[in-house]
Amino acid sequence: MKFDETPIVKDPAKEGILSPPKIRENASAAVRCYPSKPKDTQAIGLPGERVPDWQEKAIAKFAELLEKNKALRVYMDICVRCGACTDKCQFYLGTGDPQNFPVMRAELMRKVYRRYFTPAGRMGALSEAADFDEAMLEKWYTYFYQCSECRRCSVFCPYGIDTAEITMAAREIMASIGVSTKYVTEVVAKVYERGNNLGIPPAAWKDNCEFLEQDVEEETGKPIRFPVDDYGADILLVPPSADNFANVDTMVGYGKLFYALGIRWTTSTYCNEGGNFGLFLNYQNLKKVNKRIIDAARMLNVKTIIWGECGHAWRGAILTPTLNGPMDMFDPPYPYHISQFMVKMIRQGAFKGRIDKSANDDYIVTYHDPCNTARAGQLLDEPREILQHCVNHFIEMPRNTIREKTYCCGAGGGLLTDELMPIRMAGGKPRAMAVKHTGANYLATICAICKAQLPESMHYWDVPVKVGGTIDLFTRALLL
Amino acid sequence: MDTSSVLWTLFSVFYIGLSYFAALCLVFGLLSKIYGYLRTPMPWPEVVTPAPETEGGAVLRVAGDVLIFPNLFKADKYLWVGAWVFHVALAAILFRHLRYFTYPVPSLVLYMETVALFFGYLFGLTILYLFWRRLALPRSLYISNVPDYFALILLGGIAASGILVSYWLHVNIVDVKAYILGLMTLRPVSPPAHPLFLVHLTLVLILMIYFPFSKLLHAGGVFFSPARNQPYKIQNPGHRYVNPWDQSVGD
């Protein structure tokens, strides 16, 4: 099913801002993820199929989370349904489905909360409570997997109600009773088996890196290395694995950057993945996936870890000291993002006289803030500072669509899967319209999921633009 | 003792009982909810950035949220005007009501007299505006439900009856104060025998009982929103955000 079948018009947005569509009941109700497969769920410690007594078990899990998570507890109570969020979610703007109002998404959970955890809900109809039955579970499964946990709504909520926390809790409850999606569970299972989300085996990772070395040496004439499992290196780079597979320019960028700085760095075949899909599933896997990064750094005895251009990886990085213990065996600052590192080097003058901005003169560049770097990781100025130093033509998208108000690319939070294509293209519309408005021909960003989604959504919405990393542009201008 | 005075005595006892019950509901309901929020840990850093990097900055951020609703301003200017004026008027009216609870009355409260009616009307008008908004805007209409309308109708009834007994169908203010101070000193007396005042009182008591178990609890909950009240201290040297229920480093 394509959203073309529903009355979505590929209209150019006025001033690059999409006006809210008319409400279209159930417009995206049929777009659902494939359910998980037992071989994946078993590998990651989840029930393979719906457990017996799933209703009681779900409510018990809900009760447990209410005791363990302040955000959930507070956000179940305090929404006044003011409506400020109703036109803020890219999935509503793209689909017109009112269940994609952040408030309605959260109400799916609040109705169950009221029914089982408040005195009014036990009494009856006027309290807007509902049983956790098959129909409700189906709605949870549909709409909590049409949320990308991007937190744009939180920025506009007078109480900062964070729908990502609600979605994460709902998915955790569903996972505990054996309801999860094929895409997310498959990815987590691949991490345990092969060390990364794409399931690239260690040998193939090494081959890729050697191939890159030859390629880059041919192109530049410099012996730029992409070291793997180099014991005792200064830096362990934890990129999203897609950088070594799809976004190769970004991987080349890391290599050129560290070569130019003369730094000994490495990737690890035990953990060559920053993007943490545990965030989209449950706490236990979030923690376990994240632990691999610290373990890899210890195995290779590196001085510090740098996280690559990946949004969810950076969210995981922020959680690392909390989830996996103090990081004081590493050189501070930690956790450390490649953009922060680059800005530090730029400010120290490491690239003085070594940057030729005109190398990027064929591009008019605009910058897409990934949700997690902007709204979870305080990384708003660093990427822009990097771009300032390496491109001559930079243009911002409209104010309401950048920085903390950035739109999700449309595929974060475990939605980057083919069966969700209608929702991905619809959710990508606000971003596409804003890019179109700038007239840019290069869309820079620092997230692997964005880099996978944006080319598809830009193509779908007829926005002729190349998508790539900030480091791609920076090292393109860097004189080696 | 004739029948009517027996009835009036029973009626008074009922109101006195209901008043105490409502006060207890409000206080203990709120305390139990807030205790719940305080007791429940936030297991991971959750603040929405860009965020202040110090505790002081986070306090200012929450204070800003409580006083000027900056997020709502970003989201919807028309709603912001309605909501902000509504809350300011409510605060002014509550403050003015101190004259019924204090003896002697603080002079600032007495100064309020000149503008009290203005705030009363403002309060009533913003309630009408918020109610109209819920019905008139398709997205607001879609998300509004019975508790939303109930809260506005309740507050509207309180506003209307309050303005009427203060400025048009006067209730004897000495009787009102005697009733309230009587309740407060645990030497209760009969409420004023003024039907419209009793309507006002009844609606207020319903509000007090309803408050801690409804969305009106946002008044307390706004202070506990982790997305707003945490400082962003991730890279501060020596700082580690500890999850109280899980301090293992993983397996």
Architecture overview:
The complex is a heterodimer of chains A (480) and B (251). Helix content of chain A is 47%, strand content 5%. By secondary structure, chain A is mainly α. Chain A folds into three domains: 47-179, Fumarate Reductase Iron-sulfur Protein, Chain B, domain 2 (Orthogonal Bundle), CATH 1.10.1060; 196-348, no CATH class; 357-477, Rossmann fold, CATH 3.40.50. Chain A has a four-stranded parallel beta sheet. In chain A, helix 12 (248-261) links the parallel strand 1 and strand 2. Chain B is mainly α and 251 residues long. Chain B has a single domain (12-227), classed as Up-down Bundle (Fumarate Reductase Cytochrome B subunit). In chain B, helix 4 (77-96) packs antiparallel against helix 6 (113-136). Chain B is globular. The chains are: A mainly alpha (480), B mainly alpha (251). The interface between A and B is large, with 75 and 62 residues.
Salient structural properties:
heterodimer, A: 480 residues, mainly alpha, Fumarate Reductase Iron-sulfur Protein, Chain B, domain 2, Rossmann fold, 4-stranded parallel β-sheet, 3-stranded parallel β-sheet, 5% strand, disordered N terminus, B: 251 residues, Fumarate Reductase Cytochrome B subunit, globular
Summarize, please.
The complex is a heterodimer of chains A (480) and B (251). By secondary structure, chain A is mainly alpha-helical. Chain A folds into three domains: 47-179, Fumarate Reductase Iron-sulfur Protein, Chain B, domain 2; 196-348, no CATH class; 357-477, 3-Layer(aba) Sandwich (Rossmann fold).
Structure classification of chain A: mainly alpha
CATH superfamily of chain B: Transmembrane di-heme cytochromes, Chain C
Mean pLDDT of chain A: 93
Number of helices of chain A: 21
Mean pLDDT of chain B: 94
Amount of beta strand of chain A:
under 5%
Number of domains of chain B: 1
Quaternary status = heterodimer
The helicity of chain A comes to 40-55%
Largest interface: chains, residues each? A-B, 75 and 62 residues
**Arrangement of strands in the largest sheet of chain A:** 2-1-3-4
Shape annotation of chain A: globular
The helix-strand sequence of chain A is: HHHHHHHHHHHEHEHEHEHEHHHHEHEH
From the N-terminal CA to the C-terminal CA of chain A, the straight-line distance is 48 Å
| Main sheet attributes: strand count, strand direction, barrel closure of chain A | 4 strands, parallel
Main beta-sheet strand count, sense and barrel state of chain B: none
Amino- and carboxy-terminal Cα gap of chain B: 80 Å
